[in-house]
Structure formats: C-alpha cells, structure tokens
Design a protein that fits this description.
Layout: E1 8-11, E2 19-23, E3 29-34, E4 37-43, E5 58-59, E6 77-78
Parallel strand pairs: 5-6
Antiparallel strand pairs: 1-2, 2-3, 3-4
C-alpha cells in the first residue's frame, strides 16, 4: 500500500472466514487476508491504479455473477461459490 492505510477498516464475518478491508471514504473492498496467516492475502483488481501484470487464476462465486457482468469464457477454472481450500 502506497498511502491511505489510515483510511482502511477491517471486518470479519462472525461465522469466520477471511477478514475484509474496506476504504472508509468510498466503501470499496480492497483486499482480504487470512486471520490465521495475515501474510496470505487476496487483492481486488479494482484496488490497483495500473495493470499489476498478473491475471486471475480462477473465477469464484460464478453463480452470483449478475447478468450485466457475465464471467468471461476464458478457460479458467470456475467455482459456484468460494474456491475449495
């Protein structure tokens, strides 16, 4: 993170799961982290200002994709909900 760490807030669902970070100003979800291993993170592509030079490895929650933003048919593995660990 280059700047704005003081504007980030964390939330964890009471039933467990990864902690989610949000921008306090606009509400955008930035990244998630494993509460048991904070070095393990998932960064939302929308959090980048420029092309990060990496591409997705799979698509998760495809059953929840809205009709106006379909999941691309790019050959990547798909998961109805979250990717099994």
């Amino acid at each position: 993170m280059v700047s704005g760490a003081d504007r980030v807030t964390w939330w964890r669902h009471p039933d467990g799961g990864w902690e989610k970070s949000f921008c306090r100003d606009c509400g955008a979800q930035l990244f998630s982290r494993n509460p048991d291993d904070p070095a393990q993170m998932s960064v939302r592509f929308g959090a980048f200002d420029d092309d990060p030079g990496v591409r997705p490895s799979w698509h998760s929650w495809v059953d929840s994709a809205p009709a106006w933003a379909p999941v691309p048919d790019d050959g990547l593995e798909r998961f109805s909900t979250s990717r099994p660990r």
